[in-house]
Amino acid sequence: MKNLFKFGFLGLALTLAFASCGNSTTKTEEAADSLADSISATTDSIADSLNNVADSLKATGDSIADSLKAVK
What we know:
Radius of gyration: 31 Å
Helix content: over 70%
Order of helices and strands: HH
Shape: rod-shaped
Number of helices: 2
C-alpha cells in the first residue's frame, strides 16, 4: 500500500514537472531561431566584407598589371 502512494506521488510530480516545462520548449525554440538568424546575418555580413576585400585586391592587382604593361 505504501508503494502505491509512492508511485501515485511520483506520477503527480512528473505530470506537474512536464506541465510546467511545456512553455519552455517554445521559448527555447524561439531563442534558437533568433540565434540562427543572428548567426546567418553575421555570416552574410562577413562574406560580403570578404568579397569587397577580394574585389579591391583584384582591382589593385589589375592596376599594377596594367602599369607594368605600360612600362614595357
